[in-house]
């Protein structure tokens, strides 16, 4: 997993500078809860995750709900003491790792702690990621009783040999059962896919997409495989044991996915995300893309409040120890200046179907002409003062960001 950034020292009391409170009342507030446990660490994954054998006392799954609830209480006190007005949570998102390795009652306890500390806004979205093998009807019903509104299932592929090269251990036949369990419990279903794994053919990818369409989820995420240095797959690619992803192959598979999903009634609202109508979009991710505020709970979780970003210590043991001592679990933090905020606004906003107000791009008129001439942004939207990527532009989103950010 990647090294942790250093940044500025994070104060033990967690208090934020006065600048963080500016305009806080107009910004939505979300909660991200990082559950760092996995049965097996996938070879491509560089997330902050741990198997049971790597953990000890005050760092186990059994302790997690109590420690996460403690950090939620700490968060509410810090925001109040830093002068931010009370705001109910618009979104709660359990990510990982595999949150559903925890008993559903543990996730419910964390939701209860969030409700008690902050309150939940009317219609608040509560999402958990899930491995198909961890979901059955009883578990899904327990999630729904806890207030969970949507479940994002890590399907990744419908093809056995693709799952094997990704080190995914679930049985593809479990995905339809998991989808049915979530739907029968009254929650929305999202399916997550990864394309571009070594050995995955176009036919394999089409089979995965066809399986998704037959299951009719509310939402689909499709991400290209990124081989990260330091992962097992990264080492395999470096040694020549596996081929690196091919950019042309990735582009073709993205276009295939976009066409198939569009034909089935899904619309892209962010480069890697499609939904069946606005009500099926992931509001938590939209909070990120619109530079909202969120507190990240858990080992290694990142937070952002009013231009202040910080990140927790990565290992569950020191994370828990700091919370038990009444101290912030933050490892470091940074204060975003105007230039950094503008870069983030461009980088995140440009990836959405809503696009970016040209005024937020700053002095980039020359660059606009270039990306417009290259067919990377919509001409009609540009005439109306907004920057919206074309299909070609979505494939080259980083190029557009670099052009506009100067």
TrEMBL record:
Residues 23-267 form the Radical SAM core domain. GO terms for molecular function: 4 iron, 4 sulfur cluster binding; coproporphyrinogen oxidase activity; metal ion binding. GO terms for cellular component: cytoplasm. SUPFAM superfamilies: Radical SAM enzymes. It is found in: Cytoplasm. Keywords: 4Fe-4S, Chaperone, Cytoplasm, Heme, Iron, Iron-sulfur, Metal-binding, S-adenosyl-L-methionine. Probably acts as a heme chaperone, transferring heme to an unknown acceptor. Binds one molecule of heme per monomer, possibly covalently. Binds 1 [4Fe-4S] cluster. The cluster is coordinated with 3 cysteines and an exchangeable S-adenosyl-L-methionine. This is Heme chaperone HemW.
């Amino acid at each position: 997993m990647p090294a942790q950034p250093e940044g500025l020292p994070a104060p033990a009391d967690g208090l934020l500078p006065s600048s963080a409170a500016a305009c806080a009342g107009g910004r939505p507030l979300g909660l991200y809860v990082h559950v760092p446990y996995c049965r097996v660490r996938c070879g491509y994954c560089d997330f902050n995750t741990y198997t049971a054998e790597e953990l000890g006392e005050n760092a186990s799954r059994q302790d997690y709900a109590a420690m996460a609830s403690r950090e939620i209480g700490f968060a509410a006190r810090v925001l109040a003491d830093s002068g931010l007005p009370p705001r109910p949570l618009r979104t709660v998102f359990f990510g990982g790792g595999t949150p559903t390795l925890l008993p559903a009652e543990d996730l419910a306890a964390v939701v209860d702690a969030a409700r008690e500390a902050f309150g939940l806004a009317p219609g608040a979205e509560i999402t958990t990621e899930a491995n198909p093998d961890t979901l059955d009807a009883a578990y899904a019903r327990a999630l729904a009783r806890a207030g969970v509104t949507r479940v994002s299932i890590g399907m990744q592929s419908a093809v056995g040999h693709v799952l094997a090269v990704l080190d995914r251990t679930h049985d593809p036949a479990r995905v339809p059962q998991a989808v049915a369990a979530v739907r029968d419990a009254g929650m929305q279903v999202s399916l997550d896919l990864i394309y571009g794994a070594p050995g995955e053919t176009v036919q394999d990818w089409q089979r995965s997409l066809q399986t998704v369409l037959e299951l009719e989820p509310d939402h689909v995420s499709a991400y290209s495989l990124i081989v990260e240095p330091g992962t097992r797959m990264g080492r395999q690619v470096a040694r020549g044991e596996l081929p690196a992803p091919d950019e042309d192959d990735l582009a073709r598979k993205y276009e295939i996915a976009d066409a198939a999903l569009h034909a089935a009634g899904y619309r892209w609202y962010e480069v890697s995300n499609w939904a069946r109508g606005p009500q099926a979009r992931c509001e938590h991710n939209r909070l990120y893309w619109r530079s909202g505020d969120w507190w990240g709970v858990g080992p290694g979780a990142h937070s952002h409040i009013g231009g202040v970003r910080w990140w927790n210590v990565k290992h569950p043991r020191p994370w828990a120890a700091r919370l038990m001592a009444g101290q912030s679990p933050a490892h470091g933090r940074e204060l975003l200046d105007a230039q950094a905020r503008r870069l983030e606004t461009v980088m995140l906003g440009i990836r959405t179907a809503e696009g970016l107000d040209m005024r937020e791009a700053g002095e980039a008129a020359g660059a606009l002409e270039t990306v417009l001439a290259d067919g990377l942004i919509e001409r009609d939207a540009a005439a109306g003062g907004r920057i919206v990527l074309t299909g070609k532009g979505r494939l080259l989103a980083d190029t557009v960001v670099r052009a506009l950010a100067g």
